[in-house]
Amino acid sequence: MNETKFKQPTSYKKYVLIFWSIFVFGIAAVILLFWAISKGYLGYIPPIQEIESPKNKYETQLISSDNVILGSIYFQGENRTKVNYNNLSPYLVNALISTEDIRFAKHSGIDAKGILRAVTGVVTGRNSGGGSTITQQLAKQLFTENAYNVSFIKRIFQKLNEYVIAVQLERFYTKEEILTMYLNKFDFNNNATGIQTASRVYFNTTPKDLKIEEAAMLVGMLQNPTLYNPKRFPEKTQKRRNIVLGQLMNADYINKHEFDSLKTLPIELDYHKVDHKVGPIPYFREFIRQFMTAEKPLKKNYRGWDIRSGKYLADSISWATNPLYGWCNKNFKPDGSNYSLYTDGLKIYTTIDSRMQKYAQQAMYKHLSEDVQPRFFKQEANSPYAPYSSKIGNSPEERVERMHDFLERAMQNTDRYRRLAAAGVKRDSILKIFDTPVSTTVFSWNGDIDTVMSPMDSIRYMKYYLRSGMMSMNPLNGHVKVYVGGIDYSYFQYDMVSLGHRQVGSTIKPFLYTLAMQEGYTPCSRFLNAPITIYDDLGRPWTPDNSDDERLNEMVTLKWGLAKSNNFISARLMNEFKPKTLADLIHSMGITSSIDAVPSMCLGTPDFSVKEMVKAYGVFANHGVMTDPVFVTRIEDKDGNIIATFAPYKKEVIHENTAYLMLNLLEGVVDTPGGTGSRLRWKYQFKGPIGGKTGTTQDQSDGWFMGVLPNLVTGVWVGGEERSIRFNNITYGQGAEMALPIFALFLKSVYADTTLGYDPMEDFEKPAGFNTDLDCGKFTVPSQNESGKTPDSPDDFW
Fold first, then answer.
1. More confident residue, 19 or 291
2. Residue 286 burial (CB < 10 Å; 0-12/13-18/19+)?
3. 154-163, 658-667, 775-784: which has the highest mean pLDDT?
């Protein structure tokens, strides 16, 4: 008995010793575990510097001169805009805390009660909510892999890593900053990353202006944005939203009556798709992206054609003189790395005016869809070679062969063909694929068409649509107000403002007349309107034709010659001033494209871009000063600090008196009876000062109009994707018919919008001391219309 009583305390001490050994060992193991975690031995733990400044990817926003967001530049799947805490709706904050982390304000990154509740739920089989705090969820977003992609064991260690990172985040950030970072980081699907973009995509609003039911829906998506996607699963999303509203009621943010009213509301989206191919100004957005990310031009990186055409020269000049060109590769952040348009959340304040941009797009849409395209469809309706001109060959066999060559080349330029060829698919198989009908969507002016056709047929169909490019610039400061690179970026992504180079036709003639004005001629100087043969440097003769015999063999003024776009007068000036002299002048006015200095260039054989032409014509309106186009005024970083500003590069290239004489000549194109731009008067009823010049190239392949106002220069081009896609007659194929009306419709809208500040009667400023007599009345036909009635035709007007 005594022995038994003596042994009991010994047994008791043994169990106590075992208990404390296990306890101490457990504590040591936990300490060792978290030490290993903190050192990164059991998974990635970011360094303190990265936790202090986590690397979020924020989209770059383009903002118009009238403070409208024009679009964004971002990595696919990273369309995120940073928003600050004070720009979050209280509804959003309350919904997030009440649903995801009711003890958010009380814990330091890890909520022990939440973890215990989650563990209890797992043991009992009851869903009692997750144990992750908002801070832990942020840690997972910022620094750990997607939990769905890892094993159970790895997820346990991942969870422990998140605990460590969450505690670190709480050390360096306030609760408001953590909550804001979480909302800025979360991916809400449909290319909407971050609460700012999500608010815009789903409700066309800002986080600050979200209604309570909208905020609840977005917070509900946090649990599973794929399952609770309002576009795909509206009923599930509504049920989840109502759970969030219930949590708001449980947390006393709303009462029972408000909850009962809100839960019955349907989900009403104001959905705005985010895609780099859509938006108010996709061509300009892509131009800015390429312009700012350009690398320093190295000749070895350019093809022979790019060198011969002048692209390498143009890029080299831009790199040296234009701070915006290659800006991302010329400028560095404080950490020494280059700025990125895709991740740094920059705000680029552009010169584009969103109102004028809208008017330009509307004008292009109206004229092309209602006039130009129907006429072209009618012309090609019964042609076996459509959309190519029936004049592409001398016989039916030759025309068919050339048509097939054109389509073959187009097929080989498609991404589909390149992918198949790169995969080793044989040519016969590729051709069979391109001839096999499939479901597809094609463009029309009345909206997208879902149809079934072969890829080859779709290529041919899309070529029916005539293209256009348009740019407007303030010539005084270079600010580009309008940039329309094409008719629809989703289908036609080639930018016809900057990338497209087409023959300019008679729009080149004002440069030739500039030489005459510099050499002492005036608009009233007279030349013989008769055929002339001139010779190039090799002694080869060239005799141009003229479009009509009006005033043939008479002495006519230069003003009349330019107004009528008379080729004989241009040839006589070319004979006097030589091609090389003209080419040098054109280059000095800002055109960098290659020019073949031959006599025929005076009729517009060189290929220039719309952007180049607007820049060059700006010299006339800016008193002889060439001004580089300015696309951006300033750039701010994601915190609103100004990191770059931009001013135009200017250079005087002709005397201001010469420029004013040219303005008088350009006004004559509009004011002269029967002038190629005269329909601006008799058809569109403009009364104030306007200068302009039409251009029509050989076989009507290109139609141009250049419009000049005291503070706005506009260039418009219209034509087919290929030069062989064109009108067969000059009636509909001339620049006055294809391009001028777009300018006129645009200008009507600009003048009608008084908020823009354009005065229809503003005149061109005459240089001080200018005394040249510009009254050429004795050489021209006087007006035949003195009644003041509204003209119904050119004859009535004049």
1. 291
2. buried
3. 658-667
pLDDT in tens, 103-133: 888 877 676 665 555 555 544 455 444 568 8
Query: Is residue 109 a contact partner of residue 138, using CB atoms and an 8 Å limit?
Result: no
Residues 458 and 556 in one domain: no
Give the tokens for residue 75. Answer: 């990595």
CATH number (domain holding residue 668): 3.40.710.10
CA 41 to chain centre: 46
Strands 480-484 and 467-473, by their bridges, are: antiparallel
Q: Is 325 helix (H, G, I), strand (E, B) or coil?
A: coil
Q: Average pLDDT for residues 183-205, to the nearest whole number?
A: 85
List all residues 6 or more positions away from 272 whose beta carbon is below 8 Å from its beta carbon: 200, 201, 204
The span from the CA of 309 to the CA of 607, in Å, is 9
Report d(CA 563, CA 551) in Å as an integer. Answer: 13
Assign 608 to helix, strand or coil: strand
232 and 114 within one domain: yes
pLDDT for 644: 97
What's the whole-number average pLDDT of the chain? 87
* Exposed / middle / buried, residue 48 (Cβ in 10 Å: 0-12, 13-18, 19+): exposed
Q: What is the CATH number of the domain that holds 105?
A: 1.10.3810.10
Q: Is the pLDDT of residue 438 over 90?
A: yes
Query: Are the beta carbons of 280 and 357 closer than 8 angstroms?
Result: yes
Q: Residue 429 is inside which H or E element, if any?
A: helix 427-434
Do 565 and 705 sit in the same domain of this protein? Answer: yes
Provide the pLDDT for residue 153.
52
Q: Which of 262, 288, 323 is the last residue of a domain?
A: 262
- Examine the fold and report which residue of 262, 292, 311 is the final residue of a domain before the chain moves on: 262
Q: Is the model's pLDDT at 675 over the cut of 90? A: yes
Rounded to 5 degrees, what are φ and ψ at 87? -105, 15
> How many alpha carbons fall within 13 Å on the CB side of residue 521?
21
- For the packed helices 195-203 and 175-185, what is the interaxial angle rounded to 10 degrees? 50
In a domain, residue 283? The reply is no
User: CA angle at residue 291 from 289 to 294, to 5 degrees?
Assistant: 100
In a domain, 387, yes or no: no
CA distance 95 to 245: 7
The encoded tokens of residue 653 equal 């290239």
Structure tokens at 87: 């720009």
Q: How many CB atoms lie within 10 A of CB 594?
A: 20
Same-domain check for residues 509 and 556: yes
The rounded distance, in Å, linking the Cα atoms of 386 and 758 is 43
Q: Which spans in 293-342 are helix H?
A: 304-308, 311-321, 327-330
Q: Which residues contact 196 (CB under 8 A, 6 or more apart)?
A: 80, 81, 82, 83, 184, 206, 207
Amino acid type, 75: F
Q: In terms of domains, do 526 and 580 share one?
A: yes
Distance, in Å, from the CA atom of 341 to the CA atom of 332, rounded to the nearest integer, reads 13
This prediction's pTM = 0.77
Q: Is the residue at 308 inside a domain? A: no
8 Å CB contact between 764 and 660: yes
Count of structural domains, the chain? 3
Q: Do 412 and 490 reside in the same domain of the chain?
A: no
Sheet holding 480-484, edge to edge: 480-484, 467-473, 712-719, 702-709, 691-696
Q: How far is residue 600's CA from residue 610's CA, in Å, rounded to a whole number? A: 21
Q: Is residue 733 part of a domain?
A: yes
DSSP label at 503? E
DSSP H or E run through 428: helix 427-434
Please tell me the distance from the alpha carbon of residue 736 to that of residue 669, in angstroms, as a whole number.
11
Let me know whether 447 and 502 are in one domain: no
What is the per-residue pLDDT across 338-351, written as a single tens digit (0 to 9) for each?
999 988 889 999 99
Q: Residue 414 sits in which domain range?
A: 406-462
For 372-412, write each residue's pLDDT tens digit: 999 999 999 999 999 999 999 999 999 999 999 999 999 99
Cβ distance 589 to 511 under 8 Å?
yes
Clarify whether residues 540 and 453 are in a common domain: no
